[in-house]
Specification:
Two copies of one chain form a homodimer. In chain A, 35% of the residues lie in helices and 24% in strands. Chain A has 349 residues and is of the alpha+beta class. The first copy, chain A, folds into two domains: 146 residues, 60s Ribosomal Protein L30, Chain: A; 179 residues, PurM-like C-terminal domain (Phosphoribosyl-aminoimidazole Synthetase, Chain A, domain 2, Alpha-Beta Complex). Chain A has a seven-stranded mixed β-sheet with strand order 8-10-7-11-9-12-13, sandwiched between helices. In chain A, strand 1 and strand 2 form a beta hairpin. The first copy, chain A, is globular, with a radius of gyration of 21 Å. Strand 3 of chain A pairs antiparallel with strand 2 of chain B.
Chain lengths: 349, 349
């Protein structure tokens, strides 16, 4: 999954800003009917719609959010788009457009930018998204990517964080913790590589973890799955910072408490075996690991029969009144207060 | 116009990301009816509309686009918003929302970020814009600001770059070149300050130039001015890179040529006197200086009587057929080919 280092190098100065924009965007074809005008004017234009418009934005900084020593640029481009789309899907909306702005130092040749945009294009094709604008500029250090995603949804279908009610069930999609562990594996291999650059890493036991870290997918499918099941969640958020932090956002904005059951948290077998190998607590990884880009939502208890047994969904707890607080019930039946520690909790371990 | 250096310092780490977002955004109140949900969920939500939606984005990097040694943070915040709004107004649309993402190194205390957002807030109030989202993160070096502006307009009113027709008149708003000269004055003072930090600069002769550089305004007023005059431009663009570069965009996308008359280019008296002092050609400054954030548009020659004599507007030339090329007619009557050199033309002088 590493980059080919034997690439040719064309300096960005040779092209200039407008040349670079033309070069990059000529492979992108807008295909959504709502895109009236994409790249090429002072601004992009979207068709009028009888739906509401959803807007979200994220900023990714080299050395803070990604490490190019083990993140291939194509994967980085793909992931940068996916993390933004995830926020649109967390509103129960359909994503349709993105703008992409990048700042890059002169250490990046044109070929590197092409790789990045190849990943962006792949994500656009996979999720049926139009690239409609952006900005390219030089930076004094490193690479920075700023993406804004635009979507739409009927007013009645949009799900906010503030609608969770007492007795609602708490549901997560997919499984948790794998992306964080994937990062730990890649960081370990980076250290090994520093000591012995000829060492060929054997990553067979970690393929799922590494894929979840390097090429996560956003849950575009959940909106239609819920519609098919005739379930309208009461609150929803995407899991970018770990289950603990996200349920705290829902509880805080909905003015409620919650109870999460440790034995209900969905974990992939590779997460369990790798946690044993790394001697980390798998529950802690799921609660505080982050970057899973699964969805967390609450539904009325009346929807229990519709939800249970669905292989995409796990009921992990229920909403309580606010006074009861936010708690984790351990496998031993002990109740612990949930804390939003994010990655710090794991790094300071 | 310089910052107070005796400010107290609160480190950003003390607040954390969510604390910082809450602290910054609590002073912002959304007031546009189209803003359904601003900051605080996975994404912002805008009301449905029978108009088209306009989206534009810009990325500003410290050391590339601004120099904090003479740009006060409040002015920087204001200008960062204005340059984005300018792109919306250049579509003949109304701007209503922005998202603001910033990456800052730990050399910036909370008080610096507050100054930046005070400027952003002032621009929001001045232009009646809602801050609806964004991202804050740490950077490994310097400050970076990414802003996306969202506006709307009736389909029939939107003006693209590609509608200019042969014989159309070429019109610019306001005057040109002052922002570039303001930067030259500030750069000169920076050099003086390095040699003698106790020198009190006398900037009385350059107040207009410095204001145009540090606190530019976007031409929100032109859309209604044109409507009142019953003039619908055939093409429009904002002047961020200098008149020469912008008219080339219009000609290229409209598949036409043009003739610009040197003696018609609107210049402020301070531009003329400062060009003499700096021994720079004022026409070159207007053509290649940039950052004026005025509007450049073309209108049918039938609108001549409506345009002429308006103190906000200057007719600087006319559109030609493509084969005639893009030319500047000098005061001496000589025809020179226009070149889009941007700031490089001036820096390599």
């Amino acid at each position: 999954m590493l980059e080919d280092k034997n690439q040719s190098r064309t300096s960005l100065e040779q092209l200039g800003e407008f040349g670079l924009i033309n070069h990059i965007t000529k492979h992108f074809k807008a295909s959504n009917k709502s895109t009236v005008k994409a790249v090429g004017d002072d601004a992009a234009v979207l068709e009028k719609t009888d739906k509401q418009t959803i807007i979200t934005t994220d900023l990714l900084v080299e050395g803070v959010h990604f490490d190019l020593s083990y993140v291939p640029l194509k994967h980085l481009g793909y992931k940068s788009v996916v993390v933004n789309l995830s926020d649109v899907y967390a509103m129960n909306a359909q994503a349709e457009q993105i703008t992409v702005s990048i700042a890059v130092s002169n250490r990046f040749p044109l070929e590197a930018i092409e790789e990045l945009y190849a990943g962006i294009q792949l994500a656009c094709e996979t999720y049926h998204i139009d690239l409609i604008g952006g900005d390219t500029t030089s930076s004094t250090k490193g690479m920075l990517i700023s993406i804004t995603a635009i979507g739409k949804a009927d007013k009645e279908e949009i799900i906010y964080r503030n609608g969770a009610k007492e007795t609602d069930l708490i549901v997560v999609t997919g499984d948790l913790g794998a992306a964080y562990l994937g990062l730990q594996v890649l960081e370990r291999e980076k250290q090994v590589f520093k000591v012995n650059p000829n060492n060929q890493p054997d990553l067979d036991n970690y393929t799922y973890l590494i894929e979840r870290q390097l090429k996560p997918e956003a849950r575009k499918d959940i909106s239609s799955l819920l519609k098919d099941m005739d379930v309208q969640p009461t609150a929803m958020i995407d899991i970018s910072d770990g289950l603990s932090s996200e349920i705290m956002h829902i509880c805080s904005q909905s003015n409620v408490g919650c109870k999460i059951y440790e034995d209900k948290i969905p974990l992939d077998p590779q997460v369990i075996s790798t946690c044993e190998e790394f001697d980390i607590d798998s529950t802690m990884v799921a609660l505080s690991g982050g970057e899973d880009y699964e969805l967390l939502f609450t539904v009325s208890i009346a929807d229990f029969e519709k939800i249970k047994g669905n292989p995409n969904l796990s009921i992990v707890g229920h909403i309580n009144n606010k006074a009861a607080g936010l708690n984790l019930v351990t496998r031993a039946g002990q109740e612990l207060e949930l804390k939003a520690q994010g990655w710090n909790a794991l790094e300071n371990k």
